[in-house]
Specification:
Layout: E1 14-15, H1 18-22, H2 24-27, E2 35-37, H3 45-55, E3 59-61, E4 84-91, H4 102-106, E5 110-111, H5 114-126, E6 131-136, H6 150-158, E7 165-168
Parallel strand pairs: 1-2, 2-3, 4-6, 6-7
Antiparallel strand pairs: 4-5
């Protein structure tokens, strides 16, 4: 069951994220939703809202996860006013725990190359950030898809001039 709060008449309602990605058949039945998109298109939401406002046609775009797909990046420019930046280095999970929807909603483990992590951190350092959080859905699984491990990401990150402190997001200790 879903509780729908009826908005102002000109509001645009979007359903996105893990629920839409993992259960598209349910997301598509939400009659009040103007836009239904999966995780891969979250960054295009502003563009899709403008398209809906212009054409008033319901938008439904949910693509299944595919082997080798890229990680959806965080928007680095959105850390204004914060003391630390977040760098997404991993997405997905291979564990398929009985209580968790992540492997279905986010796909299998995908890791960013250490040089891409270092490049993003270098840009953040030039923007004045001295502290960064390495983040991911299952951070402990970083590199399991490409023959690396979390140490490789940390070592690449710690070499970036200007980044003085690194933090790690949530870890699954049994995978370290």
């Amino acid at each position: 069951q879903y509780c729908i709060i009826w908005p102002e008449k000109d509001a645009v309602i979007a359903v996105t994220g893990c629920m839409a990605q993992a259960r598209p058949e349910k997301a598509e039945t939400l009659a009040a939703a103007d836009i239904v998109i999966g995780n891969a298109l979250n960054a295009k939401l502003p563009e899709l809202v403008l398209d809906f406002i212009q054409h008033k046609n319901r938008i439904t775009l949910i693509a299944p996860h595919e082997q080798g797909e890229k990680i959806s990046p965080l928007c680095s420019e959105s850390f204004e006013g914060k003391t630390r930046a977040f760098v997404k280095i991993e997405d997905g999970c291979n564990r398929f725990c009985s209580y968790c929807i992540i492997p279905y909603a986010r796909g299998r483990v995908r890791s960013r190359a250490p040089e891409k992590i270092a490049a993003e951190l270098a840009a953040l350092s030039l923007s004045g950030y001295k502290e960064a959080v390495l983040a991911g859905i299952n951070l402990s699984a970083y590199g399991s898809d490409c023959g690396l491990n979390l140490c490789d990401a940390v070592e690449a990150a710690e070499k970036v001039p200007g980044i003085e402190r690194l933090r790690l997001g949530s870890l699954e200790p049994d995978q370290l």
